[in-house]
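sry for the spam today, last one i promise. struct tokens for design, 184 residues
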């Protein structure tokens, strides 16, 4: 089974920086883009660092309610997430799940018996999303939304030596590329 791991902030919506779950809004094209992935036969997972929770800006209950609101909005557009994987830790906790570490990806691999080399990561941050995908041997798709443009320019040195398999304008462009790549 192939799967696509989507970053939340800057990829599905928001600004690129962590946001309170009740303030997060998906980009207008995000539900349709996720539906493209659903219809292509891949599993679709959200995988996200939520360090603001670890810093005490909101509770886990708030985060889970925000995820449920996202699921409801996606359902209104006939789209869905197969599962959600998140890191709730403070950046200094030293956990194994905070991107660019691959703990979230390994957890999904074990839960769904995935071959990560057949899977994709879509994100806007080279130094976390693309580094994690590279470390796990996955296909890397960088979107230019959120921090994507800055990841390609001002912050390119923080993930030097890692090349995306595709650079997408946004999640819809990324979804179409992945759907096409899966048909090959």
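last one done:
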């Amino acid at each position: 089974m192939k799967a696509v791991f989507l970053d939340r902030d800057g990829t599905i919506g928001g600004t690129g920086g962590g946001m309170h779950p009740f303030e997060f809004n998906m980009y207008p094209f995000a539900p349709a883009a996720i539906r493209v992935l659903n219809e292509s036969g891949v599993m679709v997972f959200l995988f996200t660092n939520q360090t603001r929770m670890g810093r005490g800006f909101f509770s886990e209950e708030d985060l889970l309610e925000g995820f449920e609101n996202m699921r409801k909005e996606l359902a209104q557009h006939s789209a869905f997430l197969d599962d959600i994987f998140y890191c709730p830790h403070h950046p200094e906790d030293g956990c194994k799940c905070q991107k660019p570490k691959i703990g979230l990806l390994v957890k999904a691999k074990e839960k769904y018996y995935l071959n990560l080399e057949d899977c994709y990561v879509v994100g806007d941050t080279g130094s976390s999303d693309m580094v994690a995908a590279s470390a796990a041997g996955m296909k890397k798709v960088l979107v230019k939304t959120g921090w994507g443009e800055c990841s390609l320019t001002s912050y390119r040195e923080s993930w030097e030596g890692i090349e995306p398999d595709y650079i997408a304008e946004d999640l819809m462009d990324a979804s179409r590329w992945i759907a096409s790549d899966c048909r090959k």
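The CA atoms of residues 40 and 182 lie 8 Å apart. ok im logging off now
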